[in-house]
Write the structure tokens for this entry.
Amino acid sequence: AQSVTQLDSQVPVFEEAPVELRCNYSSSVSVYLFWYVQYPNQGLQLLLKYLSGSTLVKGINGFEAEFNKSQTSFHLRKPSVHISDTAEYFCAVSDRGGGYNKLIFGAGTRLAVHP
Amino acid sequence: NAGVTQTPKFQVLKTGQSMTLQCAQDMNHEYMSWYRQDPGMGLRLIHYSVGAGITDQGEVPNGYNVSRSTTEDFPLRLLSAAPSQTSVYFCASAFSADNPDTQYFGPGTRLTVL
């Protein structure tokens, strides 16, 4: 079965600084990867996804992620963060064990953007 | 479209009580799922459904039942609530059960079991 490790539980950063949130997954023949964001007291919404093709994936709100098969990583980056990016970010991998598509989530990284 | 809706938003139960968390989607999605979110553990899959009449267990199914009599609705039942079931519960849906796909999440139900 697939698994996901988010290497940082909390990331504090100043406004307008760059940020990287790290995610590693267990290896598989084919893998589909997602980043979701959860703003306070809300459900999750999709930031971006990698299904195939270009390893650099661009998402909403200026975020991007790079799929690195050799390092089994899918790190999320943003060149300049805003206060409004304060949220919890979840990396997820699609697991087709048992024949149906299921999402396996990491534990989450809490991004705190300070003025 | 309302998307994925969940009721109630908050609930407090006593140990041993039963209740049903409601989930509905109006996007004609094939796939629906229930997750629980606990601090430091991310989201864990409880049960999922790939269509009306078809359900299966996820990672943490014990203590929960589901059914899917229609495409739109996927209720989660707690038969005898325990304090370990204190959590935030999210329902999600996706267009396809066969292919990796974006899941759309509801706003969540915060459940406390005393």
